[in-house]
Amino acid sequence: MHGMGGSMRGPVVLGLDFGGSKIAAAVCDLDGNRLADTVVPTAPLDGAQVNLHRGITAASVLLGSLGGPRLVAVGVSTFGIPSDRGVELAPAIPGWDSLRLDLELNRAFDGVPIALATDVKAAAQAESETGALVGCDPGLYLNLGTGLAVAIVADGTVITGRHGASGEIGYGLRYLADVAQPSGARIMLEEAVSGMALANLASTIAGRLVSAEQVFTEAVGDPRWDHLIADFVAELAFHLVNLTIAIDPARIVVGGGMTAAWDLLHGGLRRALDAAVPYPPELTLARFPFDAPLRGAMSLGVAAARGRTVTVAEPAVSL
């Protein structure tokens, strides 16, 4: 836990980011200045309620460490698409898809305004406001974390799509044989190109549990991991090139936990874009590669506290 000691008297906003591997919380003032933050791991096998309450508890402890300041709003980012039916497209934690985050958090935090958005869209909002996507029209945010998704920013607005599912490329097709096949009958892109997918494949090859981070850190001198990374980058590049041709962005910004190995990812992606895209865009690391969703959540909360419309949250829930 990081933050200031003592008691805070002014109103504060809470930001919460529910991810597939961790839950992050931060408290800021109404100008968005971060006052304290904390991170706890998720335990996917324990289910939705356990992880929800783990996040709520971490946030409550964080607020308590500041002397129990007056909470005026909560901004939340989550994997999946929050709606009044639950959190859709959220397989990372069992039961998360039927969780009413808006109602649960409203009860936990005494009815203060709650604003929610998909994590990658919240991250793109943060990058477009104060990060590497400032002034990029359009801009593309690529998230390489536990899962795989992108967000498109046009004229300063994160495009959500009709159902909030814009940029969910993890559901993409990989082969011609996948055409007309339902998702359960094929291997989706996220199951092959994501931190989770890389860890699963590496663990199968090694006969032991191997994390995506270990694959990259052990890559030097180990031909098994060299081959695995080359295939990973090639398939990612294939889809990124096609997406880039469709959008024609000014810049592609990459964030997420896997960017810790940016030096092993950048070259292959750069070469693929330069070779195939008519107008190759800039390709750069995000300004906030590891906590942009949390920053986006705080921004949502500040806007909710000030009574502003937060376009990134639509059509997600805002109470």
List the helices and strands and how they pair.
Layout: E1 2-3, E2 12-18, E3 22-28, E4 34-41, H1 48-65, E5 71-78, E6 81-83, E7 86-88, H2 101-108, E8 114-118, H3 119-130, E9 139-144, E10 148-154, E11 157-158, H4 195-206, H5 212-217, H6 223-247, E12 251-255, H7 262-276, E13 282-285, H8 292-305
Parallel strand pairs: 2-5, 5-8, 9-12, 12-13
Antiparallel strand pairs: 1-4, 2-3, 3-4, 6-7, 9-10, 10-11
Outline of this structure?
By secondary structure, the chain is of the alpha/beta class. It is 34% helix and 21% strand.
Structure characterization notes:
With 319 residues, the protein is an alpha/beta fold. It has helices at residues 48-65, 101-108, 119-130, 195-206, 212-217, 223-247, 262-276, 292-305; strands at 2-3, 12-18, 22-28, 34-41, 71-78, 81-83, 86-88, 114-118, 139-144, 148-154, 157-158, 251-255, 282-285. 34% of the residues lie in helices and 21% in strands. Helix 3 crosses helix 8 and helix 6 (223-247) crosses helix 7. The relative contact order is 0.17.
The averaged pLDDT comes out at 92
Q: Could you list the spans in which at least 5 consecutive residues all have pLDDT below 50?
A: 313-319
Strand content: 15-25%
End-to-end Cα distance: 28 Å
Radius of gyration: 19 Å
Number of helices: 8
- What is the spatial order of strands in the main beta sheet? 1-4-3-2-5-8
Helix content: 25-40%
Gross morphology is globular
Structural class designation: alpha/beta
Order of helices and strands: EEEEHEEEHEHEEEHHHEHEH
The major sheet is characterized as:
6 strands, mixed
Q: Find the count of extended strands (DSSP E, 2+ residues).
A: 13
